[in-house]
Amino acid sequence: MALADSARGLPNGGGVSPAAGSGAPGGGAAAAATGWSSFPEIVELNVGGQVYVTRRCTVVSVRDSLLWRMFSQQQPSELPRDSKGRFFLDRDGFLFRYILDYLRDLQLVLPEHFPERSRLQREAEYFQLPDLARRLAQTRAAAARPAVLHRDGSVCAEEPPPPLLGYLEAEPLEGGGGAVASAPSPTASRSPSGGPLLTPSQSLDGAGGRRSGYITIGYRGSYTIGREAQADAKFRRVARITVCGKTALAKEVFGETLNESRDPDRPPERYTARYYLKFNFLEQAFDRLSEAGFRMAACSSTGTCAFGPEQGGPADDKIWTSYTEYVFCRD
Fold it and tell me: What is the pTM of this model?
């Protein structure tokens, strides 16, 4: 349930404990006034399932922030905890690492090609860190400038020079009937830094501005066949669907359904084999690939069979397990 800005994120709606309200010793108000805190010097945080261990002075380093109010104006008993007693925050656990880095030295340092600036700015606003939110807004504006992609995979943040408009030079047809495009000139096919630019046929952007490339979908599944064969068959159980390919392509196709927690800082033009999907329906993945213009190019599968008793199941059951990969491409 969303709370008002003045109380957002505080477990009791931003109020103080009865002890604090009455001015009793040990209350939040008394602790803030005297500088004493009942919180331990080392605090453990569970942020969206990710565990962080840090000093209390770090989380209260920015006055009037949400964490400062939680860990200086309230008592430990007033804050939610997980099953192991860690203080719990229902926010993005991956992005919180950058919030914590900022709280340590009040500096903003992000990986190269960091793709989550807008989401991190939203987290900064939630934790009420206005200076961090302002810096992120500035870096987003700078990152929005057009970039030139070179054949070697490097990226130049400069705007493309005007000669690119004449990348294909027109030559008149014999007989004066219109013009055709000739091969690019040596000067037009060079970038400002001297590296060769990609020609339209070599570009990562195909027709309609879409990137061409391959995505491989893999899954490990199992099914059980009992004594009555088809009548007792328990069909495909899929634990996890993995995604392999270029980072930018995977994010374009699967968007928010892509779990990036195992490889969060991968640049967009690099490849990864560590992504997986937040759902486990193969057909849902196929639908998304089809809608994005991909077609299946190949598939491969391996399988093994074990009897039920070996896996703790009924004596007559056969448990089949398999690993399958589907290769999709878009021209």
Answer: 0.43
